[in-house]
Amino acid sequence: VSRPPLNAKFVIMPDWGMCAWGIAGINVALHAGTPHPAIHGPLLGCQRNWDGAACEGRRWHAKNVRMVAMYAVSPAGEVPQVSSGGDALRIAIVGTGMAAVMCTRSLARMARGEVKHGSAVRNARITLFTSRGKLATQMGPRNQTVPKPGKQFFDYGCQYFTATDAVFRQEVTRWQELGFLSALPDGEVGVISPDGFVATTGEKCWVGNGGMGPMLTRIIEDTTNEFEGTVDHISGFPNSGMAVKQIAKEIDGWHLTTKGGSRLGPFDFVIGGFAQHVLTDPFLLSGGEACEKMLQCLRRVEHNQLIPIQVSFEGGPIPANFTAAHVYGEDCLSFISNNSKRPQHSGKLGTPGPEHWTLISTAAFAEREFNTNPKGYRASAQRQMFDTFARILGLASLSEHRPVINRINHWEDGLPTNTPPDSQGCLFDARVGLGWCGDFCVAPGIEGAAISGQAMATTLSNFCEHGREFDQRGFLPWDEAWAPFQPGSRVLVDIGSFPAHPRMRENWTHTQLVPSAIGGYNLKAHVGAAGQKIAHRVKRSKEGVRGGNKKGKLKRRQTPQGTGSTPRNAK
Prior knowledge:
Oligomer: single chain
Radius of gyration: 26 Å
Distance between the termini: 58 Å
Number of strands: 31
Strand content: 15-25%
Shape: globular
Number of helices: 9
């Protein structure tokens, strides 16, 4: 129908080609750029008044005549109704972390009718698109090397997590029974300061068997198997050609495009579960106007920056009677962990051979070094973090243990430091069917991400059920100032948030040196728009130093001496 007649009761066109994914129905075909209907009341038996509302691609289910896919806004800003059941809503979830996983699992249970609520998404089909995530584990100098059972590994992302939320705890218990993860023994995690090591007992500290990366891989595989017929999984790691890179809203719904050029869709809803600016900015920019407000929201997310060092000791074990410790009272070091005492793939604790440790800097140290010393931060981190590590453990010389550096890297987007005002647990643009979840909506860390994923699933179900009555307030604060995280029932430390404990105190050292991405992310410079000003100041400072040097050249920063380390890979 190129231009419907004015005051028509309704205009329909059977288009079975648009029902490629199982919706046996009749579609209202509305062409972009022509007058479109403002929907008032039930479709059948109701007169239509056509106007210039910006509506595209309204799809109606033939069984109960309710809209299934949506991209429509009436002049009054009404939210279009979505099917409260029936056949095959298509939902795409893009993300590799716990937020995406828990959103997928929560929606899958609703789709199968395994929970009392969620009837509005009954029989939905869910596709989970993953790539390489922040729950990173590696063996050897290349971070693309998949860890192997029985071999040494480094967990250099998330170090451990808790599960105080009832629903998340139930999932974690199931994954423990399946052998995906384990709780570290009591007394193995604590705090270390000049006064020594003190264990923090209480909530269980969960880690992945064989590393956090393999744990997440097994959870995703199990999710696909458990919800076969409801959940499909498309992996972009290690085959990066299948990683989703672009998004587009078209007349028949959302479409996603992979790095290799495959085009997937249409989908009624798309949910994102990642927040790194280097990924969110190009992804949402590819979606144009439909993604604009979500893009502006995610540009408001701020992260701390951290420097992890992966190091093995080939001259003998480090004398430490713990697996992991939060470090207090030190400028450059916030957390240390002996990966060799963590559980292997089988769940058995410990891996024989040289000890493999992960040292994580404070946010203040990483942000200062990386943003003011971008070419020399690795050498500085190695020298200062090694010296501190040796001192807090009472070692006269670290060189006797023959440290071998596997990798020194920089987390540009470590943990979120701010959250939406009056956070609803997730973000949702009801106009276009685009949602987002992540720990930035709840609390930094895996448990915060898990709770956000559940909130996203519940929000989508509520929207599908209530349609125009859905309360959108607080779900899309794209033009409001976001608030820094505040300590409450959880303790904020540089590597995340954890349940309050008498022996743990806040150690949140994030600074103002991290560039903002509100004005857009500079992919080439790997900084936000504000970062260009910092770079300019640093450049001018160096020019001033050159002016005082007779040869007009800066002296090269010397390689740190006295650490006794052999750099295997410092990239």
